[in-house]
Design goal:
This protein has about 160 residues and is mainly β. The chain has one helix and ten strands; from the N terminus they run E-E-H-E-E-E-E-E-E-E-E. It has a five-stranded antiparallel sheet, with no helix packed on it. Strand 7 and strand 8 form a beta hairpin. The mean pLDDT is about 95. The structure holds zinc ion (ZN). The site of zinc ion (ZN) has 8 residues, from loops.
Amino acid sequence: MSNEPKLPEIERGTEVFAVDPLTIRTHFEVDYVHSYKQDTPFFHGLQKHKLLGSHCAKCNYRYATPRSHCMYCGGKTEWFELPVEGRVHSWTVCYFAAQEFLKDVPFTLVLVEFEGVDTLFLSRLVGVERADIRIGMKVKPKFRRKATWSVRDVYFINAK
Ligand SMILES: [Zn+2]
């Protein structure tokens, strides 16, 4: 047995995705402090169990998402409360996701359309089997009790 100094061997293997060029997985984690700035009322709305859209003060184009200025005429927008019910415009089942959501796969993403609103809202659809999802089915938002202060504080369920 040698008495030469030696670093301990790494117990966990490294995933190799490609040999040439060598492509491997490396863990990466960072705390990210940021401001929601003009979108702040949207996130406060989620805590009050309200979904806020924005409409253009000049041309009245209605967005299902926060938007400080109109993408068509550049006018400033104002907040309004989205209807309490929407319909499935489109949907997909995700079998892969960013690391944070891997534990949840498969999950369903849905684009929700609201009466009188010109754009769609992307969210999760929960509690509906894939075979039972229909384009046009009525859905309603549910809100998490404990805030993550992200769009994950709202998801959709069947409105029946
Ligand atoms: Zn406009």
